[in-house]
Design a protein that fits this description.
Helix content: under 10%
Strand content: over 45%
Mean pLDDT: 96
Order of helices and strands: EEEEEEEEEHEE
Number of helices: 1
Largest sheet: 7 strands, mixed
Structural class: mainly beta
Length: about 120
Amino acid sequence: EVQLQASGGGLVQTGGSLRLSCATSGFTFDDYAIGWIRQAPGKEREGVSYINNGDGSTYYADSVKGRFTISSDNAKNTVYLQMNSLKPEDTAVYYCAAAPEYQWRELPITEYPSRGQGTLVTVSS
């Protein structure tokens, strides 16, 4: 069973940084892409970033490009999202999601089939 657990959210001031972690289990880490999705109050879910653990390729939404960095630790089966220069519009619940090799290229991050509980990020102005 694919399990994902996001952590690391919190309250930070504008311009601050946070690092989110996504601990995973129940699948072969290198065979999956792991993505981050966020949902702000009253807004649709947004695919923020993904990393394909097979080849290390990454993607960032324009809204976070240059500020967020995704990385993975294969030894710990954990994916991280380093968020710098945070803005109030980054306030949202952040979820990590997973898709296997044969699916992730065909799906937007918001439709990855496995998703964990979210972690709240609040950026104060």
